[in-house]
Specification:
- The chain is about 45% helix and about 15% strand.
- With about 130 residues, the protein is of the alpha+beta class.
- The protein has a three-stranded mixed beta sheet.
Length: about 130
């Protein structure tokens, strides 16, 4: 399933609480995330052979691990990110809605979005 298909499977009102749970405090960016969600759903995608791969990752200099995708998976245009297949490695127990929520947040913060979203992105980065 592509990132766009994952996002389209949920209403924004379903995704927002999951985003805030995964990234505490992001509820203050509801407007910006909602705008990104609408832009993403209305955007044409570009097919890509690359994937957004969620895997177990080490936290540097600790013995702890987390489940996530490398930032490099999102270091491209929104159109390409939205067209990438989202996959889980063995041991990753994130649900589809958690993958969609994480994908939307990373789309906003890492991927190269449309100019119309740049002011909203800068607000999010300033915190």
């Amino acid at each position: 399933m592509t990132l766009k298909q994952l996002l389209a499977a949920y209403d924004f009102d379903e995704l927002m609480p999951v985003i805030n749970e995964m990234f505490p405090g992001t509820s203050k960016f509801r407007k910006q995330l909602g705008e990104a969600y609408q832009l993403a759903l209305n955007m044409k995608t570009v097919s890509s052979k690359k994937t957004i791969r969620y895997k177990l990752m080490n936290i540097p200099e600790t013995d702890h691990m987390y489940m996530g995708a490398e930032d490099a998976c999102f270091d491209t245009s929104w159109e390409v990110c939205l067209g990438k297949e989202v996959v889980r490695d063995k041991g990753v127990d994130l649900s589809d809605i958690e993958l969609a929520a994480n994908g939307l947040a990373n789309l906003c913060l890492i991927a190269h979005g449309p100019r119309s979203f740049e002011a909203a992105r800068m607000e999010m980065l300033r915190g």
